[in-house]
Amino acid sequence: MLEFLHPWFFLGLLLLPAYLYYEWKIGSKKRIYLPFTRLTLVRKIVKRENLWKYVHIVLNSLIILLLVLSLVRPRLGFKSSEVEGKGIDIVIALDVSGSMQAVDFKPTNRLEAAKAVARDFISDRQNDRIGLVVFSEYALTQCPLTLDYNILLQLLDNITINQDASSTAIGMGLATAVARLKNSEAKSKVIILITDGMNNTGEIDPFTAADLAATYKIRVYPIGVGSKGLVDFPVDDPNFGRRYVKVQIDMDMATLDRIASITGTGTASLATNTEELGTIIKNIDNLERTKYKINNYYTYKEMFSYLLGLAGLLILIQFILLYVWRRELP
Predict the structure, then answer these.
(1) Looking at the structure, do residues 162 and 102 belong to the same domain, yes or no?
(2) Of the four, 17, 100, 300, 322, which is 20 to 30 A from 32 by CA?
């Protein structure tokens, strides 16, 4: 950012038209008088005088301009910001068990819908560390808490369904997410738990994991994803290729409600389509916000010394031209 410390000195630019008027009206009336007549010498002198006249005017005009600008004190300002206020640490725990292949959600199935809304959620955050945990029969940390959202989004895009998983360990997924947050010093700690099934495997049950989260003051927002009733489910037939069959996928909303109650977030949310899931995630996004105080600082680089240096160089050039080049007669 360019700014001027003493802008009133711009009035000095009025000297330029005054100087040019002087040269045009008065300087042009000056004549060269010689006590003797030598036509060739006169022609050379007049030619040199005309050239000097224009060079002289240009140099003087530039010198006046540079001196005025140096008095104005132009300087370049470089902005830096300091953010005050601790952010929120968030872990998204995402079910990748086989049932997430059901195609009752857009664009293709439940998992892809969950990834799409999670991507929007991550893109809208600032100054909050976000981590990613996936779970099916077991749980894995896909990405630890990070502010590098680009890497996080790349890892999210690479998540696929565990085709071999026939059961869901919600408790293990939640416990792994708690482990990522328990040592956090953030003002708020949040887990967004997205699943479409019921806990039927794992060494840790969901309620024990929820109690653990409450101990570390971690709020858990459970979200059940899935349409009610029969849904289309892909089956790969060795003879006829992929086909879809109607299946019933059980979802234990009572367990999710209890997890929410234990961790102080009320009740779990149910999304039966992509639009509802997006709305739920947006509501969580609005609830879990931290106010930041941003202090802006500026460092400046003064430019007047460069302008004075350039003006001095032009004065030196003018001196050389005046007392060396112009004074040398042919």
Answers:
(1) yes
(2) 17
